[in-house]
Amino acid sequence: MKTAPPPGLLTALAPLPLGPLEYHASLGSTNDLAAEQLANGAADRTLIVADEQTRGRGRLGRSWLTPPGAALAFSLILRPLPGEPGWAFTALGALAVHDALAARGLPAAVKWPNDVLIGGKKVCGVLAEADWQGSSLQGIVLGIGVNVRADAVPAAGLPFPATCVEAALGPPVDRWDLLAHILQQLLAWRSRIASPDFLSAWEARLAYRGDLVRVGSQEGILDGLDPGGGLRLRTPEGLVSVSGGDLSLRPSGAPHLC
Ligand code: BT5
Fold first, then answer.
1. Whose CA is nearest to atom 29 of ligand 1?
2. Is the per-residue pLDDT at 255 higher than 90?
3. Range 164-187 average pLDDT
4. Edge to edge, what strands does the sheet with 231-235 contain?
5. Alpha helical stretches, state H, 14-139
6. N or C: where does the chain have the smaller number of CB atoms within 10 Å of the terminal CB?
7. Which residue minimizes the CA distance to atom 25 of ligand 1?
8. HSE toward the beta carbon, residue 178, CA cutoff 13 A
9. 26 C-alpha to center of ligand 1: Å?
10. What is the pLDDT of residues 72-94, one digit of tens each?
């Protein structure tokens, strides 16, 4: 259901150099609609925002819960410029959310490859989907979900603990101000996405650094990132890189405070 954007959303986004904005009170998935629009030629920085998602998606067909009035759910269409590495867009989203939360004094960390944590609990998931035609990258749909209010956090059935921004900051948190701040960070980091600064900023924000973790079938001490955005683990056999946007990282040892 496409509707006029709330005035607060328009005001918050006005200073940003974005493309067209579409707002939906209720939508299946912002990523699904953005993928359609990407295929139909949508411009770089087209933004789709939904108040509620009825078929929000995570990776590997998992579901992402977005009840009305409680969260941020949005997708930004990006048309990569020459030199912008396709693998870096998930990190771009996570870095932007991290920095918007850290600027509010929150103990945020990026859980490789696509989550943002507050105090060790998941507050945000990023789903970057690429549209390839042959070997040519046509565009990226960068989908981001952030739990803002308590009712955004699923009540049960989570394999990893979750939280929301208001649990850490106290209510009320202005969703549209937070969205604008995330997008501002995202556009600023995008201009450096191919620079060594980007990789080192991402590495500096990683959760579980120095801790024993498991990623897929590999276990090791989380050492950092390799130059292609893969995770570098220290194992008894030496340094090992693991990569792949579909992998999940879990702490193996004692609970980690981040
Ligand atoms: C993600 O996948 O974390 C990516 C989530 C991306 C959501 C955004 S919202 C806007 C855009 N439109 C979409 O349709 N999607 C994107 P993954 O790492 O696979 O984690 C998915 C898992 O997170 C699920 O299997 C649940 O266990 C858990 N989960 C679902 N809803 C959650 C929530 N609101 N908060 C925390 N965890 C949740």
1. 64
2. no
3. 97
4. 238-242, 231-235, 218-225, 212-215, 249-251
5. 30-39, 89-102
6. N
7. 62
8. 25
9. 17
10. 999 999 999 999 999 999 999 99
**Helices then strands, each counted (H, E), the chain:** 6, 13
Question: Which residue has 């995202």 as its token pair?
Answer: 186
145 beta partners: 73, 125
Tracing tokens 């009712």 back to the chain, one arrives at 151
Instruction: Name the DSSP letter for residue 38.
Output: H
Query: Strands 21-27 and 46-53: what pairing?
Result: parallel
Whole-angstrom distance, CA of residue 237 vs CA of residue 91? 28
> What's the gap in Å between 140 CA and the centre of ligand 1?
18
Q: How far apart are CA 150 and CA 164, in angstroms?
A: 6
Residue 53 has pLDDT above 90, yes or no: yes
pLDDT at 253 over 80: no
Q: Best substitution site from 64, 121, 122 to test ligand 1's pocket, by max atoms within 8 Å of Cβ?
A: 64
